[in-house]
Amino acid sequence: MKKTLSLLLALLVLISSFAGCGGTTPAATDASAQTSAATASTEAAASESPAASEPADPSAAYNPPLTVTYARSAGLDPKFPTGQTYEDNVFTREYLSELGIDAKQAWAAQGLEQYETKLNLYIASGELPDIIKVTNMGQFTRLVDAGLVEDLTAAFDAFATPLVKQSFQSDKGLALKQVTRNGQLWAIPEVPTQLGGLEYTFIREDWRLKLGLPVPQTTEDLVAMATAFAKQDPDGNGKDDTFGFVFGNQPYENYMEIRGFANSFGAYPTTWIEKDGKLAYGSIQPEMKNALAALAQMYKDGAIDPEFVAKNAYAASSDAVAGKGGICFGQFWLITWPLPDTNTADANHFWKPYSILNTAAGTANKGSMAQMTVSSAYLVRKGFSNPEALVKMYCSYADKLYGERFDAAKYHSEGDKQIFMLAPVSAGYAGVNTKQNVEVTKAIDAKDESFLTTTEVKATYKTLREYVDGNKDTAHLTQWLLFYGPDSIFGIENTLTEKNNYTRNRFYGADTPEMQRRMSILRSQEEAMILDIVTGNKPIEFFDEFVANWNNLGGETITFEVNQWYEVNK
To answer: Are 457 and 435 in contact (CB under 8 A)?
Structure first.
């Protein structure tokens, strides 16, 4: 790519951890030796920590340097600038030169699932890096309840910059509330809670146009399109080698999964929805049964890859990139990775985003599912002498990506090389995407740059102007599909927001006791049930048996506990 991608936003920074969609993982290293070394180093540096009576300076450097260890969820297919790696990059270098923080990677794991599994093992052993990133609230609860982490209340109050504090006020303090226990702050959420986690439908628009298919208006239209993609040779190679829907065998990954399709039936799996004044688990509602019946029929009709049960989300995404499938579901960042890589297989490809559709009969669906819960956060291990170091690293990232030091070419992207994914600690900032959508759309339509209010949006505008002026490479097309107009990703999000046309998870508390004991087993049973029904190994009636078992094996107690929480927090 010849041009630099402008800032995509806080949530895009989560690709490597939520999607597991970067690249080849560095070899995992033994954490225990590094953690021990870091402990000695940080204890020696303890005297350098500012006294409580002195004014805190978030930019003050440790002298001598403070060693800080961390763990990482590494991507599956990363593209980084020459000379930068996960362990040595612009962020780690400037931590050292500007803050006196020597950041050392204790260990890495490939993708979200492997990272969570490995972190659980380290939690059980007590051998933790200095900075701990959790990717679910169950891990947060385990760490806090076991007394394995430091109270961050004083460190955040003293060292968080105005930019970061303002960001966390955008949701009226909801994100910080979720990581607070008995008035003590135990973590820093990676991003404030906001309208996020929305599901989108992504369609090979060039295939649709080639086959003369109308823009889908209903879920039934989409199913008909999937069947056409499977039967009518949309790639024109004369072979029976394409299919419609691209799914992996991980139903609830955040890409190449079934959640978006289920949403079109008014089903909200893994989400707590309000029903008759109480909270109910979306995965066991009748709407979910309807969605699974439709998926089973499509699999039988050949509209779904017949081998999807043998492929995880990453393998399924490779099929999409290779031009084998034409419809998939996931979050906004799919339009940045992996879908643009289709260009290597077909230079004329064009994936276009659409909102989640409704069934022709009309459903209770409100367009998409939005999470208002903290899904990832940073904690500091108990005994680490300088917990404020986490706050300083977090604020450093925020300033470089969203503040006065914003420099897209240096800290965000170099063409298709994603620099921001290298940061050991990343931070989000609320509302950047949708704000840019509004401002750049007005500026381009009116040919008036006075609508642009920030450095970030001016950088985005520059890229989109280059697209308008004829630069149609993948990087510029991606920016266009993200930011420009009502049909862009963030234009769709703005529309959903304005019309209140989305459904959000109503439960945002810490895992209840029964959740901690039973939910992982119940989730595994749920995912197995889905695969069995979709592939025809079990009849659709098996769903009712699953629901009964779910309730009997702990789900009923979980529901009771969730509603106890809801009575206090509704």
So the answer is: yes
Q: State the pTM of this model.
A: 0.72
Q: Which residues are bridge partners to 354 per DSSP? A: 201
User: Residue 530: which residues within 8 A CB-CB, separation 6 or more?
Assistant: 251, 258, 292
| Tally of CB atoms within 10 A around 166 | 13
* Cβ–Cβ < 8 Å for 38, 67: yes
**Residues contacting residue 248 through CB under 8 Å, at least 6 positions apart:** 256, 257, 308, 311, 312, 313, 314, 315, 316, 317
Measured from the Cβ of residue 206, the count of other Cβ atoms closer than 10 Å reads 19
Whole-angstrom Cα distance, residue 264 to residue 126? 43
Helix axis angle, 286-301 to 542-550, nearest 10°: 140
Pairwise CA distance, residues 108 & 115, whole Å: 7
Asked whether 52 and 154 are in contact (CB, 8 A), the reply is yes
- CA neighbours within 13 Å on the CB side: how many for 211? 22
* 232-253 CB burial, b ≥16 within 10 A, e <16: ebbbeeeeeebbbbbbbbbbbb
**Predicted confidence (pLDDT) per residue in 391-447, tens digit:** 999 999 999 988 888 887 899 877 778 899 999 999 988 777 888 999 999 999 999
Distances from the Cα of 65 to the Cα of 48, 49, 217, 370, angstroms: 9, 11, 59, 42
Using CA atoms, how far apart are residues 322 and 305, in angstroms rounded to an integer?
Answer: 13
Q: 496 — phi, psi (to 5°)?
A: -60, -40
- SS3 sequence of 140-207: HHHHHHCCCECCCHHHHHHHCCHHHHHHHHCCCCHHHHHCEECCEECCEECCCCCCECCCEEEEEHHH
CA distance 457 to 463: 10
d(CA 441, CA 300): 43
